[in-house]
Fold this protein.
Amino acid sequence: MTFPKLEIVNLRKLFGNESFVALDGVDFAVEAGETVALLGPSGCGKSTTLNIIVGLEQPTSGDIRIDGRSVIGIPPGKRNVGLVFQDYAVFTHMTVFENLAFGLIIRGRAKAEIARAVHDVAELLGMQNSLKLSAAELGGSELQRVAIGRTLVTKPAILLLDEPLSNLEASARIAMRRELRRLQSEIGLTIIYVTHDQVEALCLADRIAVMNAGKLQQIERTSVICKKPDHVFVAGFMGSPPMNLLRGEIIGDGTSAGFRRDGLIIRLPSSEAFATNYVGQPIILGLRPESLTLAAANEATICGKVAVVEPRGPEAVVTVEAGTVSLKAVVPTAERPQEGADIGLLADPSSFVFFSGETGRRLAS
Amino acid sequence: MKPLRIDSMLAPAALEVRGLCKAFGEKAALCDLGFAIPEGSLTVLLGSAGAGKTTTLRLIAGVERPNAGRVLMCGRDVTELEPKDRDIAMIFDNLALYPNKTGFSNIASSLTIRGTPKAEIEQRVAEVSSTLRIAHVLNRLPKTMSGGERQRVALGRALIRKPGLFLLDEPLSGLDAMLRIELRAELKRLQRDIGATFLLATPDFAEAMAVADTVVMLRDGRVVQIATAQSLYDDPADREVARFVGAPEINLLKAFYEPGILGSIRVAGATITGLKKLRNALPKAGGPFEIGIRPEHLKLSQPEGAPIKAKVFDIEPLGLKSMVTVINEESELRMIVDTDAAGRYVSGDAVGLELVDSGLLAFDAASGVRLG
């Protein structure tokens, strides 16, 4: 029988006299060679999950299995799990070589073996010529490279990365992102990557696990999660700007249906047969900002006033206010309207996503 | 290209700095810095770490003194005034609030220190909190407030003194990505609603683009360009500005002017003809120069008949869009493609590339100065 590389089984963690639930039944598995990103806002439980996997915290209940065997009770150093933090945790009074060798020296490995392992890792990271430099001379992205190398040199079965790029400047972050992707493919590591930056998650992970308030909201392949969020929280989290979410109700008479919120009514295509099943029920309609286009008033789905235009270079994010509704649309820079202008937005019905107003779950359509 | 000069306007600017110089020991931090910001506007000081943003704010606030130059507020020279007499409020990173004080006490703190009568304090706090819509957090401690509420309390604390100018030094830098995006939109809206004058320093061009009426781009202690955020992107003063603004970074390629044929260049192993936008700039360039192509100004096409031929090197998914890197013998190019379209390619596929003429920029290869 084959096991997933890593299984997180119904993990619960309570803090502070059991008054605070940090993790509330988190459950997922990671296959060998796979990268899973844990994504969520501050305090959602992603770092706690990581700390339990590595063994720095004990779960209140639940299990961590590596290759099918529980590692609860095995001390952190013996789990064969490497952890890299956001703060580089590099010894600045040592050279790059000494830093890279550190994990092997404390494990009492032979000198020749250490030298070989350090040179292999240095080559992998493109640091062969920096081995003699003092770590104090390195910049942020090189420090983080050393920190990653220090972990890789011990050949961990699983690599855990806790916001490894968030202390880097934007350009260094993009370069390191690519570096990490190269490492993934060259050495086929199993990686869990904690981040609050969805762009990092999207470009590094095979699957993304979105967490909120100690719960796993959805774990899904990267290519799917933006388009098919299962839960209204995921919809409101993924994308920049994230999906517009309008709380309202479905109205209809059996032949045609619409979505209503206060004075706003959006007609639903008659093919949305499911809509008739939800007549009178609270619904959240999801409209992706990229699916809204500018339109003349007589063709528009929604008419309103432009509150804010945020240029982004190739495109602009336009915030349109219509009654109690505020919508964001992404439009090409050349088409962007003036702030204060009255405009119409056309919504493509095929891109509508519906969530239950009660549970927040996506409704099948 | 001429930088936009606001100081020629008739009404005195809310803030004007002229010829500011500041050195720390041997090291020059600012050199002949000059710009002006109109009342009620949001101006961003943009630059990487060490460009001189914080030093500029500190000189304006009066906590440092310049070696040369003047600071004027509404036409009045305040260079010799103490910070407290300058009518300026400063907000630092992480929106530092007193953690042990309620929203009310945080907002009232500057008035309390000055011994303002209690009734007046209460009235002013009530006014400010209704403008900022934070009446509901006045009795709460900062740790129980949301990020947006904390930001508004920090602003309220500054606003209550009715300062003529707000200085914000990377106010959103300590926050996580989602919150930062949410709060910067709110910050802009508040600034507009209350009609205050903001000068905000950040190294994040995306933040600058989202909030700025005008951007003052700093590099090595000098003003490089003053422009709206979008024109900084479309019309950068030089190569470094073009690289700093925009993600993924602009593609920069060695190019050669083809003598004899107007608007024709050699770039990325191909001859491109009929370039309308660069036609007038090119003859001035003479020899080799650099061409800048934004990732969205490249389109994938069939290799047959396409001006530039290349191979797919890497596809990096970014959600609905993907960044595709293509290479040929001469160059490496990044482009932004819909993820659905990018999914039709794998590494190693032969592709053709087309350029969107209107988006091309040309730079002097040595100095980086804009040619066209």
